[in-house]
Amino acid sequence: MPPASTKAVATHASADTRLSPGAPGYRRTSLALFAAGLAAFALLYSTQALLPAISAEFGATASAASWTVSAATGALALCVLPLSALSERFGRRAMMTASLTVAVAVALLVPLAPNLESLIALRALQGAALAGLPASAMAYLAEEVRPKALIAAIGLFVAGNSIGGMSGRIVTGWVAQMWGWRAGLAAVGLTSLLCVVAFRALLPKARHFTPGTLNPKALARTVRTHLADPLLMRLYVIGALFMTVFGAVYTVIGYRLVEAPFSLPQGVIGSIFLVYLVGTVSSAAAGKLVARLGRRGALYLAVSTTAAGLLLSLADALPAVLTGLVLITAGFFAGHAVASSSVSRTAKTGRAQASALYQSAYYLGSSAGGTLGAIAYHAGGWSGTVLIGLVAVLGVVSVTLYGSHSARVEARRLQLAASC
Question: Which of 23, 42, 195, 358 fits 164 for a cystine, CB–CB 3.0-4.6 Å?
Answer without folding.
Answer: 42
